[in-house]
Write a structure and sequence with these properties.
It comes from Mycolicibacterium brumae. InterPro entries: SLC26A/SulP_dom, SLC26A/SulP_fam. It is found in: Membrane. This is SulP family inorganic anion transporter. With about 190 residues, this protein is mostly helical. It folds into 2 domains: about 120 residues, no CATH class; about 50 residues, no CATH class. The longest helix has 25 residues. The C terminus is likely disordered.
Length: about 190
């Protein structure tokens, strides 16, 4: 068991690089957490809380400075479907918190049992495919926000096909874009 007092005392004073790294991680985590929550169908504020809690807990329990603890798109995408399949309301913060606690507990058990060593047997091709699949899922989830057309298909590829077949229903709203200031004429 790690003695937290000894671990903190052994860290020394924060260096400039530590502050810069923390700032860079924070600047990435805030919009990333909000975006992942939005992609998962949750309130973006929940993404902020999940990013804060996971970072604090991860930094207190990790044994290496090489590990970055933050929210992930894979968990964000699967969380809503897990709650829905279990018959729970995904908009209820209590259900989301309960899922987070259960997932955290399972991850702690897997870590204690050293299941991370299994990842040594997963090839780069599999990880690349997994990452590409998550990217396609994110793009499919953003079709409605980007085009104004909400596909009815539950299949990811079906969403793309349906959206492309309904180009005439797309609403490309440009009113939210910043307007250019008129150029001043020189006399």
């Amino acid at each position: 068991m790690i003695n937290p007092v000894r671990a903190v005392a052994g860290l020394g004073r924060p260096q400039v690089g530590d502050v810069v790294a923390g700032l860079a991680n924070g600047l990435f985590s805030v919009p990333g957490g909000m975006a992942y929550a939005n992609v998962g169908g949750f309130n973006p504020v929940a993404g902020l809380y999940s990013g804060m809690v996971s970072t604090i807990v991860g930094s207190a329990l990790s044994r290496t400075v090489l590990m970055v603890t933050t929210v992930t798109s894979a968990l964000a995408l699967s969380s809503r479907s897990v709650l829905t399949d279990a018959g729970l309301d995904h908009t209820d913060p209590a259900n989301v918190a309960a899922l987070a606690i259960v997932v955290g507990a399972v991850m702690l058990v897997f870590g204690a049992l050293k299941f991370g060593a299994i990842m040594d047997f997963v090839s780069n091709a599999v990880m690349t495919g997994f990452t590409a699949g998550i990217a396609v899922q994110i793009l499919a989830g953003a079709i409605g926000d980007a085009t104004g057309y909400r596909p009815h298909s539950h299949n990811t590829i079906g969403r793309f096909v349906e959206a492309l077949g309904q180009l005439h229903q797309w609403v490309l709203d440009t009113s939210s874009r910043p307007k250019r200031s008129p150029r001043l004429r020189r006399s």
